[in-house]
Amino acid sequence: GGGGGSKEVKEPVTGITFPGSIQAGGKSLELMGCGERKKKIVGPVAVNVYAIGMYVDQGPAIVAGKGASSEAAAAKVLSDGSFTKSLRLVMARTVNAERIGDALAEQIVPRVKGTGAPVEEFKGFFKGLDKLENQQVVIFTQSGSTLAVSAPGNRTSQFNSAPLCKALFDIYLGDKPVSDNAKKAMTQGLLKLCGGK
To answer: For the domain 9-57+81-172, what is the CATH code?
Structure first.
């Protein structure tokens, strides 16, 4: 093939653009798909809080995804696979960072019950940030059982916790994803990657 690198993808709801590949965890990772995270404010009214995109280390992801033919199987590969993977969160509005940390922690807590996962430290990282401005980026990268978080202003932290990694990816790929569009796009991306469709 003579294709030069991956093209960027525009998340349709927020209009936020995701590069086709990023450098994370010492590797070049490829975009699987992206979607929006909405938050209901009053009744039926919802606002877009951020867009989220998932990136994977392509070689091992293809091996792990061999034989996956359904969205459910692909979601399991993406969330449980031991390959390096990232979630790239791009703000669609300006929000207090602590609120984002708390919202993620609220999703993580029931998924890590009894594991001793460092949820308070995770929340503390966001508490230590100020605002997350519209268009600013937070990247979560899992390498092995370590979750690295990088935020604007060169703020980084690492959490060595397999349950925390699993819980974070389960927020987007589990049975009750916070964004149906994101889960669909990510799983379709993996199926396409593995099936060459």
So the answer is: 3.50.70.10
